[in-house]
Amino acid sequence: MSGAPVVRVEGVWTAFGDNLVHRDISLTLQRGAILALVGASGCGKTVLMREMIGLQNPTRGRVELLGENLATADAQTQQQLRNRCGVLFQGGALFSALTVFDNIAFSLRELRVLDETLIERLVAMKLSMVGLDTSSALLMPSELSGGMVKRAALARSLIMEPEVLFLDEPTAGLDPVLSEEFINLLRALHRELGFTIIMITHDLDTLNDLCTHVGVLADQRLVSFGSLDDAIACEHPFAREFFHGKRARQVFRHTH
Ligand SMILES: Nc1ncnc2c1ncn2[C@@H]1O[C@H](COP(=O)(O)OP(=O)(O)O)[C@@H](O)[C@H]1O
Ligand SMILES: [Mg+2]
Questions:
Q1: Residues with beta carbon < 5 A to ion ligand 2?
Q2: Least packed by Cβ within 10 Å: which of 5, 22, 55, 210?
């Protein structure tokens, strides 16, 4: 199924009781893309991402991940699909009772097929990949700075060598310098490992510097899906405000 899109969302509606969150959302994303989903707080970005991973079912419509229909896939297929995805949820929460090493090793140990020597090697590789030195593996999450937490969480999400990386507001809470470092790290890893990235972000620099695709959620709909230029040209009031505010004009001035 290597020719299948990474994600295909078709006619998805999502409602929680009376709260209609998505109205007929459709999108297709090919391998290697870097998609940013933007939209106002509470508009349903995280829910859409959870639906793409199969952690939540839409009320209506279908979602295919890596060529499999999530609604009809059996439990084993769902687990296999999840093993092919890395996920970094909002806040990048690590297990607070585990060391950095044990956090990163967690999914590998769950497989119950690898010995500890190999696990140690794989964790060390991921640590160096995200720019953390081996001594930080022994620290507890509470002993890490904000930037280190993100890197450790990224290492954990990369440990299974995912084909798709889902990131929910990965740079939220980082100062501009750390945020830029994190984006540069993502770009380098994307180039090296060739995975697909689906992220939620409000960060204009990330959109400008990293993403190949931008999706804009507003009024329960995907009001724009395409290039950053498409999003900038979108007439929806949310998009007008988001892509044409003062800060946006500074960021996009030179390139768009
Ligand atoms: N499990 C749930 N049960 C009920 N309502 C939910 C649930 N998850 C999300 N919602 C609602 O769905 C809407 C979209 O939430 P979310 O996707 O988290 O927004 P955001 O775009 O900020 O990520 C919100 O109104 C939220 O209250
Ligand atoms: Mg959210």
A1: 46
A2: 55
